[in-house]
Amino acid sequence: MIDPIFLAEAAINGIMLGGILALLALGLNLIFGVIDIVWIAYVDLVMVCMYALYFLVQVYGWPFWLGALASVAVGAALGVGVHLLIISPILGSAPINQFLATGGLLFFLQSSATFLWTTDHKSVRFSLPSWELGGIFFPATRLIPFAISIVALVGLYVFLTRTYMGTAIRAVSQDREAMALMGASPQRIYLVTSAVGGLMAGLAGALLTFQYSVHPFFGGQFGPLTFMICVLGGLGNMVGAFVASFIMSEIISIAGVVWSTEMGYVIAFVVFIVMMFVRPGGILARRS
Amino acid sequence: MTFGRAAGLALVALLAAGPVIPLGGMKEYVLHVMVQIFVWSFIGGAWSLMGRFGLVSLGHGAFLGLGAYTATLLWNFYGLTPWIGGVAAVALTAVVAVIVAYPCSRFQVVGHYFALVTLAVSEVVRLLIIAERNWTGGSLGVSLKPAGRDSLLAMQFADKRVFYYAGLVLWLLGLWVWLRVDRSMARSAMEAIGEDETAAASVGIHVTRFKIGITVLSASLTAVGGVAYAQYISYVNPDTLAGIGVSLRIVFAVVLGGMYSLLGPTVGTALTIALAEYLRVVFGLKFIGMAETIYGLLLILFIIFLPAGIYGSLRDLVLRLWSPPARAAAKA
Fold first, then answer.
1. What's this model's pTM, rounded to 2 decimal places?
2. Which DSSP letter does residue A281 get?
3. To bridge A14 with a disulfide, which of A35, A249, B89, B132 should be the other Cys (CB 3.0-4.6 Å)?
């Protein structure tokens, strides 16, 4: 029998990780929902942002908060760049071509990271306190990213529901043609969406740096998981993505303690597959 | 005899004479690259059987890995000849394909969602192989136990020419299956399903049966390819034979070549392998990752500028140059 303290700690770690995963899944969800293209290389953009942060903080000696802001900016710039250079020329092509173009980007980013920065794991060192409550440790390296991700999620929610641009973005994801007829420019909305998606990637990168070291294959670690959460939550359903990321991260961290890390992912993916059959519209979708 | 058929026969004759052509010291290497092209073209062709009907699977890494690992582990642990082990591997893969395809078709999981479900399947297989490291060797992979001498029973030969001819036969077999499907009723049915499932069902096409059938065929052939590849390389590794990476590579090669034509997958595979080998030779061990970087970049450029695939685009070009009036008439 496993010590219940371990289980409780795993559960809490799951919640903390869930916040960041929700950020990633929502960024991807936004792009998928609005532009209708799956960015296979989305988490590889996160990897690039993490490298940027690492070099700025560890090599050039920037303070961490400034590096994190730079990472967010890099993310937004990457989002815009990917959209302008890769996505917009192929907006009209077959879905599989769009899919594969970002897959090519995945190979490109992974291997250029290997080429430029070798496969060594690089991490930013922190000296932050840790608190104990009832035998369970709450390290600041988990609490701070969790708190920031929650704030960012609320910010995204406000942006999407309370601003003019956010409303336009949601409108496009509901009906592309009708929106163009109403006089909105889809091109501009796509660009803003890609920038916001990239920004979320940059922020998630900065927050993941607290706990994870970066290496060229970082995208493989979180990439498939992010797609699953994004789809599991349901397109355009922010609350759904939020709930899905917590479910998935709980499964991974608890099964990771009980069996092994790989089995945690296996169970999470199997849950995803089954859920796709039972509730194809996402976990919170009403059955039609 | 049509021009196409004559060209095809000439190509096969040339390939069959391949090992006899004197190439000096390069011979072993050229044969090695050719065997890889045969096997991966076969796998690509198997993928395109369902890919061309809009069933974009990213799960072929799973089928490949299941095939390769089942045959290899049966041989390593029980000394079971890969001929029987291969049949077991294909049977297991077919069962998994049904388990995936039935609910996908029953609950109408199509498009992006089908791709993501199959992607999850290929990750599950890869992670299971890594998790069961006691038998499978985990992420380090496992070598095929050597038979010690050339053995038909063990499907192990020191001479690359044997594998060359086996690969050639396998490749031709794949093309034959592709043609059979292309000329069958199943093709029309699958095209109708790919366009609109509900409409297809309303004219009496058994949607579920056709979808499962084509998925099982495609997966089984992929497993055969996996067994063949494992026998040739005599080493299996979860990262090269299962998971998202290899699935993407298969799809890339096929889309690059063009998935709606008989030779499209072969052209795409030959080009990607030749490109990867060329870059590897040019950069060697000096710039690790450089070859792959250029590979990724070229893939993006190809997809943007040659959306119909290389073979498809070339064929369109040739057709346009040869018979402009016919094409213009077809357009009007």
1. 0.86
2. T
3. A249
